[in-house]
Write a structure and sequence with these properties.
Thrombin, subunit H, elongated, 39% helix, 12 strands, alpha+beta, 2 domains, 6-stranded antiparallel beta barrel
Length: 290
C-alpha cells in the first residue's frame, strides 16, 4: 500500500514537471514567433529575462572560474619558463664576471711587468637634458650641470649604453654638448678586432661615418667601435657603436644610443694630463745636456 502511494506521488511530480516544461517551451515559441513590436510581448520578454538572468549568471560562474584557473595555469607555465631563462642568463653573467675578474688580475700583472702607467680614474657626473637644440645644421643638447659640478670643455658624455658626444661650452650650472652626429664632431676611435684607428666624423645625419682609415683596410660589417683615447680628453674603451656598410660599400657607424630620446646623460671627468715641456724649457731644466 505504501509503495503504491509513493508511486502515485512520483507520477504526480513528474506530471507537474512535464506540464511546466511544456508551458515554458510553448511560451518560448510564442515569444519567438509573435510580432516583436507588440508591447505586451516585449514586457513579457523583459520579465523573463529578469527572472532567468540570475540563473544564467549562476550557470556561467563555473565556466568563468575554469577560465580563470586555465589562465592561472598558463601564467604559471610562462613564469616557470621565464624563471629558467633568467637562471641561465644569471649563470652566464656569473661566468662572465669570473672571467672579467681573472682578466683584471692578469691585466694588473702585465702592467706591473711592463711598468705601464695606470689609466687616470674616471669620475662620472650625472645630468639631465633640459634643452634639445638640434636642427639640420647644429646638433647639440643642454644639460643642467656646469663648472660647479666639475664639468670642463672637451669631456666625454655618455648615455646609458655608449658615447653620445663631448662638452663644447660650460657655464656655472649648465653645459652644452656636441652630439656625435654633428658635422663639427670628430672623435678618435678603434675598430675591432684589429684595433684599426679611424676618426668618427658627424655628417648631420643619424649615423656618423669613419674617416682617415689606413689604406687597404677591410672593415667588416658588425665590427665594434670604441674610443681610442687619443688626445687625452675622451677615455679609451667607451662603446660607440657597430660598423655598417652602405649600398656603395662605405662604412658608417650605427650608434649604441638613440640620440633622439635622451633624458639623462653622464659626463665623464678625467684627471688632466700635463703636456710635456717645450724644448726651450727642457734645456733650462736642471741636469739638461748632461
Amino acid at each position: 500500500m505504501a509503495s503504491f502511494k509513493s508511486r502515485r506521488s512520483e507520477l504526480r511530480v513528474i506530471s507537474v514537471s512535464g506540464i511546466t516544461l511544456i508551458c515554458l517551451l510553448f511560451a518560448a515559441i510564442c515569444l519567438v514567433f509573435v510580432a516583436r513590436n507588440d508591447r505586451l510581448i516585449g514586457n513579457l520578454r523583459q520579465l523573463m529575462s529578469d527572472v532567468f538572468t540570475p540563473t544564467y549568471d549562476l550557470i556561467s560562474r563555473p565556466s568563468l572560474e575554469l577560465r580563470k584557473m586555465r589562465n592561472v595555469a598558463t601564467n604559471l607555465v610562462d613564469l616557470q619558463a621565464s624563471y629558467q631563462e633568467l637562471e641561465l642568463e644569471n649563470q652566464r653573467l656569473r661566468e662572465q664576471l669570473g672571467e672579467l675578474r681573472r682578466n683584471r688580475v692578469l691585466l694588473d700583472r702585465y702592467r706591473e711587468l711592463l711598468a705601464l702607467p695606470v689609466e687616470p680614474d674616471l669620475h662620472v657626473i650625472s645630468a639631465r637634458v633640459i634643452a634639445d637644440l638640434q636642427s639640420p645644421f647644429v646638433r647639440t643638447l643642454v644639460a643642467n650641470t656646469g663648472h660647479l659640478a666639475g664639468v670642463k670643455e672637451g669631456q666625454a658624455v655618455t648615455g646609458g649604453r655608449g658615447l653620445i658626444g663631448r662638452i663644447v661650452s660650460v657655464g656655472r650650472v649648465s653645459s652644452r654638448l656636441l652630439l656625435l652626429t654633428d658635422f663639427n664632431s670628430h672623435v678618435p676611435v678603434l675598430i675591432a678586432p684589429k684595433n684599426t684607428r679611424a676618426i668618427l666624423s658627424g655628417n648631420n645625419a643619424d649615423n656618423p661615418v669613419l674617416r682617415f682609415l689606413p689604406k687597404n683596410t677591410v672593415i667588416e660589417d658588425g665590427a665594434e667601435v670604441v674610443t681610442s683615447g687619443d688626445g687625452g680628453q675622451v677615455p679609451i674603451g667607451i662603446p660607440v657603436g657597430v660598423v655598417r656598410i652602405d649600398d656603395d660599400g662605405r662604412p658608417f657607424v650605427e650608434l649604441q644610443e638613440d640620440l633622439h630620446n635622451l633624458s639623462y646623460v653622464r659626463v665623464i671627468s678625467t684627471r688632466d694630463i700635463a703636456p710635456p715641456p717645450r724644448e726651450t724649457e727642457a734645456q733650462t731644466l736642471p741636469g739638461a745636456g748632461r
